Amino acid sequence: MPQQRLYSIGEMAKITNVSVQTLRYYDQIGLLKPVRVDATTNYRYYDEAQIYIMDLIKSLKYIGTPLEDIKKAQAFTPEEMLLYLTEQEKVMEHKIRRMVEVQHTLLKTKKQLENHLLIPIYNEVYESVEEQQRLLAVRTNDLTADYVPNEYFSALTKTVEREGVAMNSRYGGIYPLRPYEQLQHVVYSHVFTPLLTDRYIEVLDDEMDVLRMQEGQYACIAFKYDLNTYLSQYQKLYQYIQEHELTPTSDVYEFFVQANYSPNETPVYVMELKVKIS
């Protein structure tokens, strides 16, 4: 019977395209121990079967399997290996869905910033085509535009974080389009934050809804937030709709966003009011 061919650690490294340091580490942790170690020189030797074992190790490592689990997998029967790979497939599918959602969140965040930078004019009404947006909203009672308690925004934040999705830095409110003469008469039906995910929100508190701001043509006005000038800015929007004989088909969507981020600068907030028109 021919003698089994043995490979030195250097030869094994070249054949399997794995570094000598990695082979020594795998020996140290018991993942791939050489079949023989020379008692005099302490040289490690591997057999041909271990080349195929290394292929298995590399394949499982490629799909993200921890080394400790790879050690266990070496003792699997073919049936057990099939079951394990099926479980890993489900893990990969979950990770892929997660990464797609992260990418989607990134794109939506970029789009929001692009739209903010592309506001054509401040303190004057303009028309804009808006995309559909999903809004996580809290129903409110007797809440006016001159006072928005932080507990509403806290409730939105808790719900978003509980669902494991990214929090938006934009907030807003919804109220009817009317000829207001005093800011205290502006009463919100909802306060909201735009959702950065299309995922179904599984758990909503009793006072919460997921609303949709429909796509279409909107009359808009943008301005730096100042409570003293809010009403006059709103009145410009209302008068524009009346003077141009436009038909409003939505309530007023109010978007509120911080325009700078440096802790060394005085915060600047931008308000956008939008009404769908036809």
Describe the protein in words.
- With 278 residues, the protein is of the alpha+beta class.
- It folds into three domains: 6-75, Multidrug-efflux Transporter Regulator, Chain: A, Domain 2 (Orthogonal Bundle); 77-118; 122-277, Alpha-Beta Barrel (Multidrug-efflux Transporter 1 Regulator Bmrr, Chain A), CATH 3.20.80.
- Helix content is 38%, strand content 25%.
- It has helices spanning 9-16, 20-29, 48-62, 67-73, 78-117, 150-162, 230-243; strands at 6-8, 36-37, 44-47, 125-130, 133-144, 171-175, 187-194, 208-213, 216-224, 252-258, 269-276.
- The strands form two sheets. It has an eight-stranded antiparallel beta sheet with strand order 4-9-11-10-6-7-5-8.
- The protein is elongated and about 100 Å long.
Highest CATH level, the class of the largest domain = Alpha Beta
Mean pLDDT: 90
Alpha plus pi helix count: 7
- Overall shape: elongated
Number of domains as seen in the coordinates? 3
> Architecture of the largest domain, according to CATH?
Alpha-Beta Barrel
Indicate the proportion of strand residues.
25-35%
Question: Number of DSSP strands?
Answer: 11
Please state the structural category. Answer: alpha+beta
Strand order of the largest sheet: 4-9-11-10-6-7-5-8
First and last CA, distance: 90 Å
Main beta sheet: 8 strands, antiparallel
**Regions with pLDDT < 50 over 5+ consecutive residues?**
none
CATH superfamily caption of the largest domain: Regulatory factor, effector binding domain
What is the CATH topology classification name of the largest domain? Multidrug-efflux Transporter 1 Regulator Bmrr, Chain A
Rg (CA only): 31 Å
Helicity level, as a percent range?
A: 25-40%
User: What string gives the helices and strands in order?
Assistant: EHHEEHHHEEHEEEEHEE
